[in-house]
Write a structure and sequence with these properties.
The complex is a heterodimer of chains A (about 140) and B (about 150). Chain A is an alpha+beta fold and about 140 residues long. In chain A, about 30% of the residues lie in helices and about 45% in strands. Chain A has helices at about 1-15, 25-40, 45, 65-75, and strands at about 50-55, 65, 80-95, 95-110, 115-130, 130-140. Chain B is an alpha+beta fold and about 150 residues long. Chain B has a single domain, classed as Nuclear Transport Factor 2, Chain: A, CATH 3.10.450.50. Chain B has helices at about 1-45, 45-50, 70-75, and strands at about 55-60, 65, 85-95, 100-110, 120-130, 135-145. In chain B, β3 and β4 (about 100-110) form a beta hairpin. In chain B, α1 (about 1-45) runs antiparallel to α2 (about 45-50). Classes of the chains: A alpha+beta (about 140), B alpha+beta (about 150). The interface of A and B includes residues 53, 61, 78, 101 and 141 of A.
Chain lengths: ~140, ~150
């Protein structure tokens, strides 16, 4: 019965001009919220988009867990002024995992250090209990042009 | 309720043990695939290297340069960029979903030339099981520097 209902939905949605969001669209939306939360320093909203198993590799070699990253955002040790994608590519890897890669122009302050440059990054998103969450991240600084 | 829990306890322990064993087996398989990738790279063995890489590979270097599978193999087999030794300082495997395992850590890459110090990298890699074989799907590295003060990504 449930299968029949799902099948009916699949048939009806296109007729109504509607369709289920693709993995790419879902991850893109989750990431847009992540970036916005980061720019606003909204650690509570950001927390909902980070996996408890997060591994976050910074440019300086530090690898942070979810609590450490959120603490830095919450304490304003880490603040972002700009996070503008120059290139963004989202590739589903399995039903519940997608990799996101590309380039970003970043303006941020971490303590007394201010950065203003482009980075290349690799991120892994995972669907956990129906919600896409950032699971791993690593970036590198791009040479100035 | 308590009696039921006590009765189920051995079953739960057995299930947890089985899950742990499955994870251990998974990690051993991906570790073996990565060891094979490194060995093929050091040996300049194109066929073996090819077998460890996904056709969809995106390999991003610490310089920001990006390779696909073909250009990565070509670069790795070129004599002027050959590696002499790969030394993992840390290599952690984390299953992300069925058929997907992350690998991250820190690696020293030696060129074998005395005048050139080893490249010290932090890295994140994604391995995917494709047709029964584990293949490297994505790699991103960054030059490791000892952190002095908190810094942004």
């Amino acid at each position: 019965m449930r299968r029949l209902a799902a099948l009916s939905l699949l048939l009806v949605l296109p007729a109504l001009g509607l369709r289920a969001a693709s993995v790419e669209e879902e991850v893109r939306a989750a990431d847009a919220t992540r970036v916005l939360s980061t720019l606003r320093g909204d650690a509570d909203r950001l927390a909902q988009l980070l996996s408890d198993g997060l591994t976050y590799g910074h440019l300086d070699g530090r690898v942070q867990s979810k609590p450490a990253l959120l603490a830095a955002v919450r304490s304003k040790d880490l603040t972002y002024e700009a996070y503008d994608y120059l290139e963004l590519r989202i590739t589903p890897v399995s039903d519940d995992v997608a990799i996101m890669s590309g380039r970003t122009h970043l303006k941020a302050s971490a303590g007394a250090v201010h950065v203003d440059y482009a980075i290349r990054f690799l991120a892994v998103w995972r669907r956990e209990s129906g919600t896409w969450r950032l699971f791993a991240y690593q970036s590198t600084k791009l040479p100035a042009k | 309720m308590m009696k039921t829990l006590l009765r189920l306890w051995p079953v739960l322990l057995l299930a947890l043990g089985t899950l742990q064993a499955a994870d251990d087996g998974l990690i051993a398989a991906v570790r073996a695939a990565d060891d094979a990738r490194v060995a093929a790279m050091l040996a300049g063995d194109e066929a073996r290297l090819d077998a460890t890489l996904s056709d969809e590979l995106r390999y991003a270097h610490s310089s920001g340069h990006l390779n696909d599978k073909a250009s990565y193999i070509k670069a790795r087999l070129a004599a002027n960029t050959a590696y002499n030794r790969v030394e993992y300082k840390e290599r952690t495997f984390q299953p992300a979903a069925p058929g997907v395992v992350l690998m991250f850590g820190r690696v020293l890459i030696h060129s074998g030339r005395a005048e050139k110090p080893p490249v010290d990298l932090n890295f994140l890699a994604v391995w995917r099981e494709e047709h029964g074989a584990w293949r490297l799907l994505a790699w991103q590295s960054n030059t490791h520097t000892e952190p002095a003060a908190p810094a942004a990504k």
